[in-house]
Design brief:
By secondary structure, the protein is α/β, with parallel strands linked by helices. It contains 12 helices and 9 strands. It has 2 domains: 174 residues, Rossmann fold (3-Layer(aba) Sandwich); 98 residues, Pantoate-beta-alanine ligase, C-terminal domain (Pantoate--beta-alanine Ligase, Chain: A,domain 2, 2-Layer Sandwich). Strand 8 and strand 9 form a beta hairpin. The structure holds pantoate. Pantoate binds next to strand 2 and helix 8. The site of pantoate (PAF) has 10 residues, from strand 2 and helix 8.
Length: 311
Amino acid sequence: MALRHGAGSPRCFLPGDAACKFFLLIRMEIIRTVADLDARLSAARAEGRSIGLVPTMGALHQGHISLVDRARRENDVVVVSVFVNPTQFNNPADLATYPRTEEADAALLEAAGVDYAFMPSVSEMYPRPDTRVFDLGDVAKVMEGAMRPGHFNGVAQVVSKLFAMTRPTRAYFGEKDFQQIAVIRRMADLEGFDIEIVDCPICRAADGLALSSRNVRLTPAQRVVAPNIHRILLESLDWAKSMSVAQVKARVIDAIDSYPDMSTEYYEIVNSLTLQPIRRWDDVLSTPGARPVGCVTVYLGDVRLIDNIKY
Ligand code: PAF
Protein backbone atom coordinates (compact mmCIF):
# COMPACT_ATOMS: atom_id res chain seq x y z
CA MET A 1 0.00 0.00 0.00
CA ALA A 2 1.35 3.45 -0.88
CA LEU A 3 1.86 5.45 2.31
CA ARG A 4 1.20 9.14 2.14
CA HIS A 5 1.11 12.14 4.41
CA GLY A 6 -2.30 11.54 5.94
CA ALA A 7 -4.12 11.63 9.25
CA GLY A 8 -1.80 10.14 11.81
CA SER A 9 1.24 10.33 9.54
CA PRO A 10 3.99 12.28 11.30
CA ARG A 11 5.09 15.37 9.36
CA CYS A 12 8.85 15.78 9.04
CA PHE A 13 10.61 18.54 10.87
CA LEU A 14 13.90 16.87 11.89
CA PRO A 15 15.92 15.93 8.80
CA GLY A 16 18.23 13.56 10.70
CA ASP A 17 15.43 11.57 12.20
CA ALA A 18 14.98 8.00 10.90
CA ALA A 19 11.22 8.29 10.74
CA CYS A 20 11.70 11.53 8.87
CA LYS A 21 13.95 9.88 6.26
CA PHE A 22 11.35 7.20 5.86
CA PHE A 23 8.61 9.71 5.29
CA LEU A 24 10.72 11.83 2.94
CA LEU A 25 10.71 8.83 0.60
CA ILE A 26 6.99 9.23 0.25
CA ARG A 27 6.49 11.29 -2.87
CA MET A 28 3.58 13.27 -4.07
CA GLU A 29 2.03 11.67 -7.11
CA ILE A 30 1.36 13.67 -10.27
CA ILE A 31 -1.83 12.43 -11.90
CA ARG A 32 -2.71 13.23 -15.49
CA THR A 33 -5.90 11.28 -16.13
CA VAL A 34 -9.35 11.24 -14.62
CA ALA A 35 -9.23 7.43 -14.44
CA ASP A 36 -6.04 7.48 -12.33
CA LEU A 37 -7.45 10.20 -10.08
CA ASP A 38 -10.60 8.18 -9.58
CA ALA A 39 -8.65 5.01 -8.77
CA ARG A 40 -6.55 6.77 -6.07
CA LEU A 41 -9.46 8.62 -4.52
CA SER A 42 -11.85 5.66 -4.59
CA ALA A 43 -9.28 3.76 -2.51
CA ALA A 44 -9.03 6.67 -0.07
CA ARG A 45 -12.81 6.94 0.18
CA ALA A 46 -13.14 3.18 0.76
CA GLU A 47 -10.81 3.63 3.75
CA GLY A 48 -13.12 6.37 5.07
CA ARG A 49 -10.52 9.12 4.54
CA SER A 50 -11.59 12.72 4.06
CA ILE A 51 -10.46 14.49 0.88
CA GLY A 52 -9.51 18.16 0.61
CA LEU A 53 -9.42 19.70 -2.87
CA VAL A 54 -7.56 22.91 -3.75
CA PRO A 55 -8.44 23.92 -7.34
CA THR A 56 -5.78 26.16 -8.94
CA MET A 57 -4.60 27.38 -12.32
CA GLY A 58 -0.95 26.93 -11.31
CA ALA A 59 1.78 29.61 -11.18
CA LEU A 60 1.56 28.84 -7.50
CA HIS A 61 2.54 31.25 -4.75
CA GLN A 62 2.28 31.45 -0.97
CA GLY A 63 -1.44 32.28 -1.24
CA HIS A 64 -2.10 28.87 -2.80
CA ILE A 65 0.16 27.20 -0.27
CA SER A 66 -1.87 28.73 2.57
CA LEU A 67 -4.94 26.97 1.10
CA VAL A 68 -2.96 23.73 0.85
CA ASP A 69 -1.79 24.08 4.46
CA ARG A 70 -5.36 24.50 5.65
CA ALA A 71 -6.54 21.56 3.52
CA ARG A 72 -3.66 19.52 4.96
CA ARG A 73 -4.73 20.33 8.55
CA GLU A 74 -8.39 19.51 7.93
CA ASN A 75 -8.27 16.42 5.68
CA ASP A 76 -6.64 13.01 5.42
CA VAL A 77 -5.87 13.31 1.71
CA VAL A 78 -5.05 16.52 -0.17
CA VAL A 79 -5.51 16.91 -3.93
CA VAL A 80 -4.43 20.06 -5.74
CA SER A 81 -5.57 20.54 -9.32
CA VAL A 82 -3.36 22.60 -11.62
CA PHE A 83 -5.23 23.42 -14.80
CA VAL A 84 -5.40 26.65 -16.80
CA ASN A 85 -9.05 26.43 -17.76
CA PRO A 86 -9.61 27.83 -21.27
CA THR A 87 -13.40 28.13 -20.88
CA GLN A 88 -13.14 30.84 -18.23
CA PHE A 89 -10.98 33.20 -20.34
CA ASN A 90 -13.05 35.60 -22.37
CA ASN A 91 -9.87 37.23 -23.67
CA PRO A 92 -7.58 34.98 -25.78
CA ALA A 93 -4.54 37.20 -25.05
CA ASP A 94 -5.12 36.74 -21.32
CA LEU A 95 -5.22 32.94 -21.78
CA ALA A 96 -2.07 33.00 -23.93
CA THR A 97 -0.08 35.07 -21.43
CA TYR A 98 -1.34 33.34 -18.27
CA PRO A 99 1.84 32.14 -16.52
CA ARG A 100 2.53 28.39 -16.68
CA THR A 101 5.17 27.02 -14.31
CA GLU A 102 4.36 23.34 -13.97
CA GLU A 103 7.73 22.10 -12.69
CA ALA A 104 8.03 24.76 -10.02
CA ASP A 105 4.38 24.16 -9.06
CA ALA A 106 4.99 20.43 -8.58
CA ALA A 107 8.04 21.13 -6.38
CA LEU A 108 6.09 23.57 -4.20
CA LEU A 109 3.18 21.16 -3.82
CA GLU A 110 5.43 18.27 -2.92
CA ALA A 111 7.18 20.38 -0.28
CA ALA A 112 3.77 21.36 1.11
CA GLY A 113 2.88 17.68 1.69
CA VAL A 114 0.26 17.32 -1.04
CA ASP A 115 -0.73 13.75 -1.84
CA TYR A 116 -1.90 14.15 -5.42
CA ALA A 117 -1.26 16.92 -7.92
CA PHE A 118 -3.87 16.56 -10.64
CA MET A 119 -2.40 18.12 -13.80
CA PRO A 120 -4.64 17.13 -16.71
CA SER A 121 -4.43 18.23 -20.35
CA VAL A 122 -7.21 20.28 -21.94
CA SER A 123 -8.43 17.20 -23.86
CA GLU A 124 -8.54 15.15 -20.65
CA MET A 125 -10.71 17.78 -18.95
CA TYR A 126 -12.77 18.53 -22.05
CA PRO A 127 -12.92 15.37 -24.24
CA ARG A 128 -15.85 17.15 -25.92
CA PRO A 129 -16.89 20.81 -25.79
CA ASP A 130 -18.69 21.70 -22.57
CA THR A 131 -21.92 23.36 -23.65
CA ARG A 132 -23.49 23.55 -20.20
CA VAL A 133 -24.91 26.92 -19.26
CA PHE A 134 -25.37 27.39 -15.52
CA ASP A 135 -28.09 29.56 -14.05
CA LEU A 136 -25.77 31.32 -11.63
CA GLY A 137 -28.26 34.04 -10.73
CA ASP A 138 -27.60 37.60 -9.65
CA VAL A 139 -24.29 36.88 -7.89
CA ALA A 140 -22.74 36.28 -11.32
CA LYS A 141 -24.25 39.27 -13.12
CA VAL A 142 -22.31 42.13 -11.51
CA MET A 143 -18.61 43.15 -11.39
CA GLU A 144 -16.49 40.30 -12.88
CA GLY A 145 -19.67 38.82 -14.38
CA ALA A 146 -20.46 42.09 -16.17
CA MET A 147 -16.87 42.81 -17.24
CA ARG A 148 -15.95 39.29 -18.34
CA PRO A 149 -18.95 37.73 -20.13
CA GLY A 150 -18.87 33.93 -19.89
CA HIS A 151 -16.10 33.93 -17.28
CA PHE A 152 -18.17 32.59 -14.40
CA ASN A 153 -19.93 30.04 -16.58
CA GLY A 154 -16.45 28.72 -17.45
CA VAL A 155 -15.46 28.67 -13.77
CA ALA A 156 -18.68 26.77 -12.98
CA GLN A 157 -17.95 24.29 -15.79
CA VAL A 158 -14.44 23.45 -14.63
CA VAL A 159 -15.12 23.47 -10.90
CA SER A 160 -18.20 21.26 -11.33
CA LYS A 161 -16.04 18.82 -13.30
CA LEU A 162 -13.34 18.90 -10.61
CA PHE A 163 -15.95 18.36 -7.89
CA ALA A 164 -17.47 15.43 -9.78
CA MET A 165 -14.04 13.88 -10.47
CA THR A 166 -12.70 14.35 -6.95
CA ARG A 167 -15.86 14.22 -4.80
CA PRO A 168 -13.99 16.03 -2.03
CA THR A 169 -15.15 16.44 1.55
CA ARG A 170 -14.01 20.07 1.44
CA ALA A 171 -12.83 22.46 -1.28
CA TYR A 172 -10.68 25.53 -0.60
CA PHE A 173 -10.83 28.93 -2.33
CA GLY A 174 -9.08 32.24 -1.64
CA GLU A 175 -11.09 35.37 -0.79
CA LYS A 176 -9.11 37.47 -3.25
CA ASP A 177 -11.64 36.12 -5.77
CA PHE A 178 -14.47 37.12 -3.47
CA GLN A 179 -17.25 36.95 -6.06
CA GLN A 180 -15.98 33.64 -7.43
CA ILE A 181 -16.64 31.96 -4.07
CA ALA A 182 -20.30 33.09 -4.13
CA VAL A 183 -20.62 31.79 -7.70
CA ILE A 184 -19.10 28.42 -6.75
CA ARG A 185 -21.44 28.10 -3.77
CA ARG A 186 -24.36 28.77 -6.11
CA MET A 187 -23.11 26.18 -8.65
CA ALA A 188 -22.61 23.61 -5.86
CA ASP A 189 -26.21 24.21 -4.66
CA LEU A 190 -27.59 23.92 -8.19
CA GLU A 191 -25.71 20.69 -8.87
CA GLY A 192 -26.43 19.21 -5.42
CA PHE A 193 -22.76 18.78 -4.42
CA ASP A 194 -22.49 17.95 -0.72
CA ILE A 195 -19.10 19.63 -0.33
CA GLU A 196 -17.99 22.10 2.32
CA ILE A 197 -16.76 25.22 0.49
CA VAL A 198 -14.05 26.78 2.66
CA ASP A 199 -13.16 30.43 2.01
CA CYS A 200 -9.67 31.42 3.09
CA PRO A 201 -8.29 34.92 3.81
CA ILE A 202 -6.30 36.85 1.21
CA CYS A 203 -2.53 36.35 1.48
CA ARG A 204 -0.55 39.56 1.04
CA ALA A 205 3.08 40.43 0.40
CA ALA A 206 4.74 42.38 3.22
CA ASP A 207 3.88 45.63 1.41
CA GLY A 208 0.19 44.70 1.23
CA LEU A 209 -0.15 43.60 -2.41
CA ALA A 210 -2.59 40.70 -2.65
CA LEU A 211 -0.66 37.65 -3.88
CA SER A 212 -1.71 36.70 -7.40
CA SER A 213 -0.27 34.58 -10.20
CA ARG A 214 -0.53 37.68 -12.38
CA ASN A 215 1.90 39.66 -10.20
CA VAL A 216 4.86 38.08 -12.01
CA ARG A 217 3.80 40.03 -15.11
CA LEU A 218 4.30 43.40 -13.35
CA THR A 219 7.41 45.36 -14.30
CA PRO A 220 9.66 46.35 -11.34
CA ALA A 221 8.21 49.89 -11.52
CA GLN A 222 4.61 48.60 -11.57
CA ARG A 223 5.38 46.25 -8.67
CA VAL A 224 6.39 49.30 -6.60
CA VAL A 225 3.11 51.09 -7.39
CA ALA A 226 0.81 48.05 -6.99
CA PRO A 227 0.63 47.99 -3.14
CA ASN A 228 -1.15 51.37 -3.30
CA ILE A 229 -4.33 49.46 -4.23
CA HIS A 230 -4.47 47.84 -0.80
CA ARG A 231 -3.22 51.00 0.94
CA ILE A 232 -6.08 53.02 -0.58
CA LEU A 233 -8.65 50.35 0.32
CA LEU A 234 -7.37 50.38 3.91
CA GLU A 235 -7.61 54.16 4.03
CA SER A 236 -11.18 53.92 2.78
CA LEU A 237 -12.14 52.19 6.04
CA ASP A 238 -11.62 55.59 7.68
CA TRP A 239 -13.43 57.47 4.94
CA ALA A 240 -16.43 55.15 5.44
CA LYS A 241 -16.83 56.49 8.99
CA SER A 242 -17.99 59.88 7.72
CA MET A 243 -18.83 59.49 4.02
CA SER A 244 -21.67 57.94 2.02
CA VAL A 245 -21.15 54.80 -0.07
CA ALA A 246 -21.11 56.90 -3.27
CA GLN A 247 -18.50 59.29 -1.82
CA VAL A 248 -16.21 56.46 -0.71
CA LYS A 249 -16.49 54.78 -4.11
CA ALA A 250 -15.61 58.01 -5.92
CA ARG A 251 -12.70 58.75 -3.61
CA VAL A 252 -11.22 55.24 -3.96
CA ILE A 253 -11.42 55.44 -7.76
CA ASP A 254 -9.87 58.94 -7.80
CA ALA A 255 -7.05 57.89 -5.50
CA ILE A 256 -6.19 54.79 -7.57
CA ASP A 257 -6.46 56.62 -10.90
CA SER A 258 -4.15 59.39 -9.63
CA TYR A 259 -1.24 56.97 -10.27
CA PRO A 260 -0.25 57.42 -13.94
CA ASP A 261 -0.03 53.69 -14.74
CA MET A 262 -3.14 52.60 -12.78
CA SER A 263 -6.70 52.62 -14.04
CA THR A 264 -9.71 51.37 -12.09
CA GLU A 265 -12.03 49.16 -14.11
CA TYR A 266 -14.63 49.16 -11.34
CA TYR A 267 -14.93 49.71 -7.64
CA GLU A 268 -18.19 48.43 -6.19
CA ILE A 269 -19.30 48.27 -2.61
CA VAL A 270 -21.57 45.24 -2.35
CA ASN A 271 -23.49 43.08 0.08
CA SER A 272 -21.07 40.26 0.98
CA LEU A 273 -23.74 37.57 0.55
CA THR A 274 -25.87 38.75 -2.38
CA LEU A 275 -22.96 40.54 -4.14
CA GLN A 276 -25.42 43.28 -5.12
CA PRO A 277 -24.18 46.89 -4.94
CA ILE A 278 -25.43 48.80 -1.90
CA ARG A 279 -26.42 52.49 -1.82
CA ARG A 280 -26.32 53.01 1.96
CA TRP A 281 -24.08 51.36 4.53
CA ASP A 282 -27.06 49.95 6.42
CA ASP A 283 -28.56 48.31 3.29
CA VAL A 284 -26.81 45.09 4.35
CA LEU A 285 -28.84 44.90 7.56
CA SER A 286 -31.69 43.24 5.69
CA THR A 287 -29.44 40.23 4.95
CA PRO A 288 -28.49 38.40 8.16
CA GLY A 289 -24.73 37.87 8.37
CA ALA A 290 -23.91 40.23 5.49
CA ARG A 291 -21.54 43.18 5.55
CA PRO A 292 -20.35 45.73 3.01
CA VAL A 293 -17.40 44.59 0.90
CA GLY A 294 -15.52 46.79 -1.54
CA CYS A 295 -14.35 44.93 -4.65
CA VAL A 296 -11.89 46.52 -7.05
CA THR A 297 -10.34 45.68 -10.39
CA VAL A 298 -7.37 47.75 -11.51
CA TYR A 299 -5.34 47.69 -14.69
CA LEU A 300 -1.68 48.31 -14.03
CA GLY A 301 -0.40 48.63 -17.57
CA ASP A 302 -2.05 45.57 -19.15
CA VAL A 303 -2.01 43.49 -15.95
CA ARG A 304 -5.46 43.11 -14.42
CA LEU A 305 -5.37 42.95 -10.61
CA ILE A 306 -8.27 42.41 -8.22
CA ASP A 307 -8.57 43.02 -4.49
CA ASN A 308 -11.24 43.64 -1.88
CA ILE A 309 -11.84 44.93 1.62
CA LYS A 310 -14.52 44.31 4.25
CA TYR A 311 -16.11 47.42 5.82
O1 PAF B 1 -9.38 30.83 -8.94
C1 PAF B 1 -8.85 30.14 -9.83
O2 PAF B 1 -7.63 29.93 -9.89
C2 PAF B 1 -9.75 29.49 -10.88
O3 PAF B 1 -10.80 30.33 -11.23
C3 PAF B 1 -10.26 28.10 -10.47
C4 PAF B 1 -11.18 28.16 -9.27
C5 PAF B 1 -9.08 27.18 -10.17
C6 PAF B 1 -11.06 27.47 -11.63
O4 PAF B 1 -10.27 27.36 -12.78
